[in-house]
Each structure stands twice: as structure tokens, then as C-alpha cells.
Amino acid sequence: MEILDAIRANLLSPAVLFFALGLIAALTKSDLKFPEPLYIGLTIYLLVAIGFKGGVAIAEAGIAKVWLPALATMGLGALIPLWTYPLLRFGGKLSAVDAAAIAAHYGSVSAVTFIAATNYLTAIDQPFDAATNYLTAIDQPFESYATAFLAVMESPAILVGVVLGKLATKQAGADSGASLKTAMHEALFGRSIFLLVGALVVGALCGEAGMRKVEPFFVTPFQGVLTLFLLEMGLVAGRRLGDLKRVGPFLLGFGIIVPLVNGALGVYLGKVTGLELGGATLLGALSASASYIAAPAAIRMSLPDANPTLYLTSSLAITFPFNITLGIPLYLEIARRLYS
Amino acid sequence: MNLHPMKLVTIVCEAYAKDAVTKLLHEVGAHGHTLFPVEGDGSRGQRPGDIPEFANIQIEVIVRPETADHLLQKLGQDFFPRYAMVAFESDVRVLRKDKF
Fold first, then answer.
1. pLDDT value of position A181
2. Does domain B4-99 have CATH number 3.30.70.120?
3. DSSP secondary-structure letter at B98?
4. ipTM, interface predicted TM-score of the complex
5. Which one, of A31, A91, A30, A63, lies nearest residue A205 by Cα?
6. Does A30 touch chain B (CB under 8 A)?
């Protein structure tokens, strides 16, 4: 079965295994811990590396190829909260402000999920044991400029979610928290989006010549850094697992089904806007992912009455682990079927 | 030495509340504050502090007694229901009264 092989190749990659190790460390209450500066350092490295690489790819492909799928991605990001909000509000019987907050998280994106997806597609030169058929190399080419889609998909959903939440609280006569302007500033100039867009622009200006200069630092060690970072993400997600019983069965199902639907939508959108199979898979992973850094920061400020346990647990303890273990191979499989 | 009585207000809260709290400090007329990241646990769970956004911060501010009352009242009214937060005041004495 091709799909089982694809999942196995993902589960046995160093990044995902270290993620599992982090989960185990958190569950067994090991004293393993990353200091804050290391966490920040690793995120800066990953965002700059992926942004720079994406920028160089934009310079090569030309903006004419990028703008249509990028615009479509932005649109999808803004639309996802509009269909998840009523689902949460009326299907899940959540309060309006909680529904708006969760909807914003699922429309926005997780950069690490995207990076893990690119990593999965580039599984390079894995030792292939024909006897056990153990590690299957995926090696699916994709458009490196897909990083631009990551950059444009982060903010629109946050803004839509905040507007939905504000409308709901205004109706109830209990508006509180910072203005939409504050959320907009956080969504557009928060450190992750700022760094990512900045690195994209720098990469686009430098082009291939610039890439050759920084390649030994930003490309070769990339997989190792990502592996280390996923160990930390395992710790972070693992600490949230205890909250699972507080979010209820609806959000548990929501955190898995909604990414699958959004993932399929993303893959489809990739196909109709002319991406290759690999690029469409990445767009699927992006659409399926839920934000857990940028969106919580903006939502906590603008919609302080929304319960953070609900949105953080569902995006961090349900959707993120699902996507990086089973989700990504499934989006590849969806893409393969759609393109065949 | 001529020391003047003042109030030290200490606020320990989730890092997400930072901007809202510092804005409030300006509104009530505090002239400055000190902020540092801290760790610990409380009724809203553990705050281990590796991701700055998920961490706890402590904000300390020295103000006149009437400002401290006003500040704590505002915190109790608008912030305690929404954010993971504790706040308390203590007596301190300062050298330069006009600075606060």
C-alpha cells in the first residue's frame, strides 16, 4: 500500500521521531527543557532559512508565476474562518467569542507544519532497505517559492476572526480588549511574519548568487535544526495534552476533521491555480495547519474573553501533532489522486 | 536621609497581558516600570517559560499611594476576570519623591 509507506516514511523521519521523544519527555515529566533564547534562536533560524530560500525561488520563477496562487491562498485563509465559525458556534455550541477565536487559529497557519511538509517532500537519499522496504524515499519536487504562500496566509484569518469576535461581543454589549488596529499590527508585524516576509524580500533581491554564499549555513544544517526544534515542539505540545479532557469531544473531532477538509481544499486550490503536485501538497498542509503563536498573541489581546485553553489545546495538542504525523502524508496522497 | 513613602505595585501575569497592562500603567500616571520574565505555576496551570508568549511576566511599578489604589482597582475590575494574574502592593520608601 503506497499510502501506508508514505505514512511510515514520515513517522520514521528524525524530525517526527524527535517530536515523539519530546512528547514522551513531557508526559513522563522529565526535566528536559529548552531555554527561551534557544527556542527563539531556532525559530529565527528556521524562518530566515525558509524565507530566504523562498525568496530566491521567487526571483528565479518570476512574480508572474507566484501571484495567482498567492492571492488564492490569501482568499482561502480569509474564507476558512467563515465556514468554521458557524460550525463551532452551532455544531459545537461554543460561545460566539470562542468560536471566532478558534476559527481564526484554523484559518491562519503554522510555519513549522509547512516546514515539516517541505522536509517530508525532500526526504533525501534515505538508505533504502529492499528486504524490509523500510524507509521509502518520497523525493517529490515542489515549488520552493511556496514559502510566499505561508507568508500571505498567516494574517487574513486572524483579522477575519477578530472582526467576527468583535461583532459578536458588540451585539452582547460587552466589547473589551484592544482594537482591531492592535490585532492588525500584531498580525502584520509580529516577529514571525516580519522575519518571514523580510527574508523573502532579501532572498528575492539576492537571487541565486546570494544563495551560494549562505548555503552552508542555511541549507545544509536545516534538517538538523528542524529536528531539534521539533523536539522542543514535542515538549510544548506534550504539556498541553493534559488539557485535552477539558476541551470536550467536539473539539477533538474538529481538530482532526477540519484540517482534512481544509487540506483537501488547499490541494485542490493548488491544482486549479497551476501548481505542481508538490506545491499543491504544501498548500494543503498550509491550509490544514492551525496557528499557535501568531494567532494566540493577536487573539489574546483583541478578544481577551475567549478561552485560551480551547484554542491553544486544539491547535497545539490536536491539530499540530496530527498534521506532522499523519496529515502531511495524507495531503500528499490526496494530491497524488487529484493529479493522476 | 529624607525618605518618602510610596507604594510598590507588583503584577504577575501571563505574557499576553503585557501590552494591556503597560497601557494601563500609562493611563493611571505611572512614570515607569520594570518588567521581567518569570516562571511558576498557579490556578491557571504551569508556566514553564520557554516560549515567551506562553510565559509569565512580573511587572513592578512604584507609584503614589492614591495611584496605587486606582491601579489595583482597575486591575481587579478589567483584568482579573480575563487574564491569569495576581497583583499586590507593598510599602516602600524612595529618595527622590518627584520621580514617581
1. 78
2. yes
3. G
4. 0.73
5. A63
6. no
